[in-house]
Amino acid sequence: MSNVSEEIKYLLSPKAIRERTEKIFDLTKAGKTHFEFHPEKLKEVTPFVIKVIKENYPDLDIPFHSRWGHFKPGGEDRAEILKAKLGNDKIENARTLLDLVITSVLLDAGAGAQWKFDENGKSFNRSEGLGVASFHMFKSGIFSSEDKVQADAKGLKNIKPADVEKHFQVTKENPLVGVEGRANLLKALGKCVENKPAVFKDGRPGNIIDHMLATYGNSFEASDLLFEVLLQFGDIWPARIIRDGISLGDVWSHSLLGEKETFDSLVPIHKLSQWLTYSLIEPIMEADVEVKNVQNLTGLAEYRNGGLFVDMGVLTLRDESLYQKAHKPSGELILEWRALTIQLLDIIAKEVQDELNKSPQDFPLAKVLEGGTWWAGRKIAAEKRSDNSPPIKIDSDGTVF
Question: Could you tell me which of 238, 244, 181, 174 has the C-alpha nearest to residue 7?
Answer without folding.
Answer: 244
